[in-house]
Amino acid sequence: MNSYTIHSSHNVSVLMYHFVFPTKYRRVVIDDDVDEVIKTTCIEISKRYPIRFLEIGTDKDHIHLLIQSVAKYSPSEIVRIVKSITAKEVFRACPQVKKKLWGGEFWSDGFYVASVSEHGNEKVIANYVKNQGDKYNKMYREYYIEGQMSLQDFE
User: Fold this and answer.
1) Which of 114, 109, 112, 107 is nearest to 61 (CA)?
2) Interatomic CA distance for residues 67 and 43, integer angstroms
3) Mean pLDDT (the chain, rounded)
4) In terms of pTM, does the model score above 0.90?
5) Would you give the distance in Å from CA 64 to the centre of its chain?
């Protein structure tokens, strides 16, 4: 992975997210031309915002992004920035796409996001926290509600 530690005046972070953005109505509108516009636009976004695109993968009706950003930008803010700018550029550069969609929107309102760790999963981090200092004082551990899925369900 090509992530790096970001140092700012009051914090240090390595925040990475996996995003999936479906096209509006899940229309199959991402062809080679649209693919190129999205990738080029993402590179331009990274020049103007503290958003790094570590990976970009497109399919015919959705894209996957591995993004690194700073703590100042919430996942929702990153989504807003990336979706709005890429949609505008796709419609500008590929007007034929707008004819396949109605309502003037390229992306669906929804999205998927998951945090990605450079250093491991929940068990690894919990063990790291547990082994800090001479004596570990377990202050709090959230227990999930019966029937609710936990992170271990996905391992």
Assistant:
1) 107
2) 12
3) 84
4) no
5) 8
